[in-house]
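Dear support,

I submitted the protein below through the web form. The confirmation email said the job was done, but the results page showed an empty box. After a refresh the structure appeared. I'm attaching both so you can tell me whether what I see now is the final result or a partial one.
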Amino acid sequence: MDYIETQPERTDLPLVVVPTMFEAMYRPLASSLRILHDVARVRMYKDFNIDADTIVERCAQADTVMVIGFHVNGPLLEKLADHVRCFVFGGTGVSNFIDLKRTRELGIRVCNTVHYGDETVAEYTFALILELARGVGAMDRGIRAGNWSGREGFALKDKTLGIIGFGGIGQSVARIADGFGMRTMVWNSHVNAATARSLGTIRVDTIAELMAHSDIVSLHLPLNEETDRVITADDLEKLRPGSLLINTARAELIEDGALVSRLGRGDIRAALDVFDKEPLPADDPLRSVPGVILTPHVAWRADDAYHDMSRQVARSILAFYNGERFNVVE
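What the results page shows now:
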């Protein structure tokens, strides 16, 4: 059997299907979903990167589906819509994974998970910053290849970190930056002035202004109608030579083609954990741009985040079957 199912004999209960997941998620998710005993059966598959036909097959009897690592739109959504009543997304930025307009039309509930990885993503952001600044990984590979020359570093103390987006992750990034002795400035159309002041962060009015005055820029906006392609080629032009750009949020925040064009000039460097197409295609131009660190959308993947996400997923499903609301995406 390629799945594990709780209470398989309880065919009178609705079926919750987790069609795919990271193996490391299994234990925290299985533990959290115990609260659905006598409420719903849960069928969990422990493999990842499956195709759409397999998702449809696995979800054939599902009343609720947990969505992680695949997109629910177009033909896939239509094939599931005749029997699925609730999608629970294992993440925050649900709009580019689930067609919310269509699910609303169909009357299907969509839930997400919030703030489950604020510190995890913030820590990973600094892992990327430090790799760009000091090149520890690159020097390790160099030594193993017989190169002892090393490289010059980029100190963080007294540098200015520009944070685009100031929700839970952005605020966590600001707190870590303070520990490094950095200055921070923030742009966010909804930033709370009191929160910014409490973290010693300067607010700016435009993305262009933030780009122009930052040594490092880190993106932490959610993707929605307001933020889709909100960062333009003109904004990126304001980055000074030697600047670093970090994106652990969403690639779709940046205007199509603008980042590759700016990086191609070779005077700034970047670390990217998110891409327009994932997995990153073999012929994507980002693969050949020098000075760029690429990682496979893993900033959120850590033990604490898995546990918090799992608890929220379980609560959302329980609330759905109890006629209540938890983390419902409006």
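Response: this is the final, complete result; the empty box was a page-load delay. The CA atoms of residues 317 and 323 lie 10 Å apart.
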